[in-house]
Amino acid sequence: MRIFTIFIRKFSKFTRHFNKHEDMLVKQERREKFYKENYIDKVNYKLLEDFPMWLGGFELGYLSHLFRGKKWQEIIKMNYKDLEKLGVLSFRNRATLIRNFLIVRRHLAEEKIEFSNKGNIEKKSFENEKKLNYLQFYEKNYVNVNFKLLEDFPAWLNGIKLAHLAKLFEGKEWYEIIEMTKDDLKDLGVTSSNARNKLIANFWHIKRKLYSSTAATSDKKSSENKDMMQKPG
Q1: pLDDT for res 113
Q2: Which of 17, 24, 32, 96 is deepest in the core (most CB within 10 A)?
Q3: Where are the transmembrane segments (predicted)?
């Protein structure tokens, strides 16, 4: 009887833990769906007008005070150095912001929309098709990581305008390269801090995609195992 009671307690604890994990997955799925609908598939300009809320969509709402008094039309033109001067000290946060700024700018270019300083939307003919094509290419292969392109690392470098560094990485596999730190890159011969920053930002994004993909696969297997356990013998 005592053994049975212990078993019931442990099973209840496991069930609570599993249910909590499932709730977290549901919340994560909702966040990902919201992000896809309002940031990736199309830009929710109404949300963008409320910049603190827009930041909250990718969990950076706590940085909103740094952008107080600035229009989003100005903010999305910022680069890494601008953000650092503003007070965004975390490199990961700067990388996340820049990535989302690029997506907004790509949508603006696609829709051939120019936002004036007053925030009024004006239609105009988009002259720089080359820039539009690059933004589309970047989103397709770098925001949505193209692992096939990564296999050809010199071509991958070329896509972010760092082809001149290809020789430094000869003989190395991409999965080794993305584990490099700024110091590693500097020792390798990447002398430009801007180039190192760009590489590290992309490495971090690739690893994030890899880990999220691995976690999703693991959760799927866990769910399948649970279903099998619940099936009658």
Answers
A1: 55
A2: 96
A3: none
CA distance linking residue 193 with residue 122, whole number of Å: 37
Under 8 Å CB-to-CB from 160, ≥6 apart: which residues? 138, 142, 198, 199, 202
Residue 80's SS3 state is: helix
Instruction: Let me know whether 117 and 149 are in one domain.
Output: no
Final residue of a structural domain among 144, 171, 195: 144
| Among 104, 127, 144, residue at a domain's last position | 144
pLDDT digits (tens, 9 = 90+) for 94-104: 988 998 898 88
Domain with 49, as residue range(s), is 26-144
131, 157: one domain: no
Q: How buried is residue 40: exposed, middle or buried, by Cβ count under 10 Å (0-12/13-18/19+)?
A: middle
Q: Report residue 84 as tokens.
A: 């650092």
Q: Is 0.85 surpassed by the pTM of this model?
A: no
Over residues 161-184, the pLDDT tens digits come to: 899 999 999 999 999 999 999 999
